[in-house]
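Same chain as my last thread, 169 residues:
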Amino acid sequence: MSITNTISISAIGQDSHRFEPDDSQKPLVLGGVAIPGAPGLAGNSDADVILHAITNAVSGVSGVNVLGKISDDLCLNRGITDSRVYLEKALETLLADKWKLTHVSISVEAKRPHLSAFIPAIKCSIAELLSIPENSVGLTATTGEGLTAFGRGEGMQAFVIVSARKDAF
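reply #2:
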């Protein structure tokens, strides 16, 4: 009989972007899902604040920063603006050290658009991207009572905590 010890870890990620002008044709993408009712977010990529925050949290587990030099190469040099690709690159860094994500908790602050109707689709998309069950994805949204630029409708921000585990030996 062999005994396996498991190591667990959690890491936090954050991202924020300002909205494009209201007449912009850039779509708003959150968690890999196109969301109607607001302009897209400003950035070189699709500026998906949820996937960027998850990518940053994954980087907190692996110690390899993907947003920055790696994503800039993908976006600016190769024309890849889909944040799902950046997240895939971050997930590859976990596999190298045998980490497996077990849970993700996401909090979005934004005045617009109202996100409650889109939460199931976003959770489904994230579960698929992370290869975890949908009930292992938590997603909440708040306006923050208008106390910040995000709560006043100037942009969006997301905070994420990921949990991961691996066998110690």
